[in-house]
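Minutes, project check-in
Item: structure for the 190-residue chain
Input as provided by the requester:
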Amino acid sequence: MTILHIDSSARTQGSVTRDLSARIVAKLGGNVIRRDLSEALPQITETWVNANFTPADDRDPAQRDTLALSDTLVQELQAADTIVIGAPVYNFGIPAALKAWIDLVARAGLTFKYSEAGPVGLLNGKRAIIAVATGGTPVGSEVDFATDYLKHVLGFIGIHEVEIIAADRVMAQGEEAINDARAEIEKLAA
């Protein structure tokens, strides 16, 4: 099994989601592709959009260079059987770095396609496990804009088997919330 391990917390030390995602990866075992988003990814620009919408065979060297990182990120997704994402909730949503990653991997013709019935995800047969931590936002509540968004985006690109391991309301529940999430990890099947 190949695991794509993505961490999106800006905190490289003391991060609950980094701890949880590392535990998930260790529990599952396998070959690991590591992607740390603590150093922000570039935002989508007009140059990127124009390169992306140019047919692959017609792209000039500058356009290929513009899409090189995005191509690498897509290849990492394509190579993975399981995607493990550490996703803290910042201000009710996902970190900007994780949103930038999504923008770079949601690519028509590579991770989804358009059909008469609408968009169709191309990354079928993969599993995603999202380690979420929040300070005060209850996961799954009407003010949690992170987990449903991530499930939707992953489903859009064809990943429908999505599990959430949550340490929510850490500021209110403290270590108990973290320990509950760690216990859920121990129940995961490889």
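Outcome recorded: The chain has seven helices and seven strands.
No further action items on this chain.
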